[in-house]
Structure of FAD-binding dehydrogenase:
Amino acid sequence: MAYDADVIVIGAGLAGLVATAELVAAGRTVILVDQEPEQSIGGQAHWSFGGLFLVDSPEQRRMRIRDGVDLARQDWLGTAGFDREDEDRWPRRWADAYVEFAAGEKRSWLRQHGIRFFPVVGWAERGGYSATGHGNSVPRFHITWGTGPGLVAPFEQRVREGVARGLVRLCFRHRVTGLGRTGGTLDTVSGEVLEPSAAERGTASSREVAGAFEFRAQAVIVASGGIGGNHELVRAQWPGRLGAPPRTMLSGVPAHVDGLMLGIAERAGASHVNQDRMWHYTEGIENWNPVWARHGIRILPGPSSLWVDARGRRLPVPLFPGFDTLGTLEHIVTSGYDHTWFVLDRKIIGKEFALSGSEQNPDLTGRSVRGVIGRARADVPGPVRAFMDHGADFVVEEDLAALVRGMNAVTGDELIDEAVLRREIVARDREIRNPFTKDLQVTAVRGARRYLGDKLIRTAAPHRILDPAAGPLIAVRLRVLTRKSLGGLETDLSSRVLGTDGTPLAGLYAAGEAAGFGGGGVHGYRSLEGTFLGGCLFSGRAAGRAAAEAVR
Ligand SMILES: Cc1cc2nc3c(=O)[nH]c(=O)nc-3n(C[C@H](O)[C@H](O)[C@H](O)COP(=O)(O)OP(=O)(O)OC[C@H]3O[C@@H](n4cnc5c(N)ncnc54)[C@H](O)[C@@H]3O)c2cc1C
C-alpha cells in the first residue's frame, strides 16, 4: 500500500518542529498535523520565557559561575529523586544524556541556528536543602534573546523551507483521534478535520468537525504536548502524596494542551509512565489581560518577598520564593487553603518580580537593548506595573492596616489578622540589622547578592519591609497554576515508544512533553527549570534523527 509521506509528525509545537526540521535536513517527506490553526504554530513554546538550562557556558563563566557536568548531574539526580525500578529505567538514562547535552553541544548547536542568550544567567530552583538535595547549586537559567518566539523561529523557518522544497505538508486543523497498524507496524494516523478557524494564537479554537482524514507513513512521531490545559485530567492524575488538588487552579497553558493524544497512544499499545508526576507553579496570578481561559501568569520571584499562608503565617524553611516549587505546592495543598501571599514593597517588586511569558517581556522578546536597559532603570517594569494597576490579586497600600484590609477584601473573608502578619514582618525586619541572624531567608538573600547577576538585577539590597522609604507595601495573592506533565510516553534513547512489555512499538516515536521530555519522565519528580524547552529540543532532535534513519 502506498504511503502519503515518509513520516507523520503529530503536533507543531517546539518538539514537533525540531523533529520535522531534522527530517527535512535528512531529505525525508513529512506530514505535520496539528489540531490548531496555523497562527498557533510553535504551541506553548511561543508563549514561553525561553529559559534554557545550560551547564558551564561562557555566559556563566563571564558571571564568575563555576559549573560542570558532575555538579549538574548531582543536582539533577538530587532533584529528580528517581525511585522507581521500572518506570525510571529510561528516564535515568535520558537524564544522563540530557545533562551531557546541556554541558556539551546544546549551546553550539543552538548558536548554529542563530540563537543567542541574554548575558545575565538566572538562578531558578535554588533548593535550600543539602548539597546533594533538590535545586541548582549555581545559576543555570539562560534566557533566549527573543524569548520563546526567538527559539521557535529557526526551527519553523527550516520547516517552511521544507514546505517550499516539497518535502513537508502542513495540515492544520487536523485532530488525530486514532493510530493504526499494518502488519504490526504503526503507520496510520486518522482523525477529524476541524472547520477553519480565525481564532487568535492561544485562544480556544472551535472543535466543529468538517470532515475526516487518514494518512499513512513508515513512521509516526507523537509530539502532542502534555496535560496542563485539561484540569480534569490534572485532577484525575493528581498524586496522592501532594494531598487533594486545590479547588481552584489557574491555567498556565492554552486549552490545546489537552493531553488527549496520550490516551490515544496508550490505546494503540504505548506505555504511558509516571503519570502522577507533574510540575505546577505556586506563584500564579490571574492575568488581567487574558488570552486563554483561566489564564494565569507565573511570577518568577527573587528571594526577598515574605511568603505567608492564607492566615498570614510565614511558610516553613526553605520554602522561600524561587527555592522549591513542589515542596511549596505540597505545603499549600495540605494547608487547607488554595492560596498564599507574597508580602513585599516597591523596592522588592521593582527589582525582583519577573513575569514568565514572551508577551510579558516585550523588551527581551523584541530583542530591544534599549528596552532591557529601560527595565533595569525603571522603578517598576511596565508589565509588572500593569498588574499592580489592574491585577485582581494585587493590593498596594501605604500602611499595614490598610494592606490587611485590602488582602481580606480580595479573598472576601477575614483570614488575615493584622497582628499575626505584623508580628511576622517586624520579626523578619529586625533580623536585617542582625549580622548573624537565625532567619535563613535573610541569610539566603545575603548569599544571593554574592552572585553578580542577582546583585545587578534580581535581588534587592536587604532592607526593612516596613521602612516607609521602601514603600508602598504590596501584597500579591498567589494561586496554583497548572503547567507541565513530567511523565509521558516511555521512550528509549532513540525516542522509540515502548509497549507495555518494554519493547519498541514498530513505527512509533515520541518527543517533547508527550514523552515526558524523554524516556517518559526525564525530570523524575522535580525540575531544575529551563529544562522543558531543552527537553523538546533534545528529544525532538533524537526522534527526527531516528525516524529519518529508520525510513531510509
Ligand atoms: C507561559 C509559558 C512559559 C514557559 N517558559 C518556559 C521556560 O522559560 N523554559 C522552559 O524550559 N519551558 C518553559 N515553558 C514550557 C515549554 O514551553 C513547554 O513545555 C514546551 O514548549 C512543550 O512543547 P511541546 O512541543 O512538547 O508541546 P506543545 O507546545 O503543547 O505542542 C503540542 C502541539 O500538539 C498539538 N496537538 C495536541 N493533541 C493533538 C491531536 N490529537 N491532534 C493534532 N494535534 C494535536 C497541539 O495543538 C500543539 O500545537 C513555558 C510554557 C509556558 C506556557
Remarks:
- DSSP finds 19 helices and 20 strands in the chain.
- The domain at 5-224+486-550 is CATH 3.50.50.60 (FAD/NAD(P)-binding domain).
- The two ends are 17 Å apart (CA to CA).
- The first strand starts at residue 5 and ends at 10.
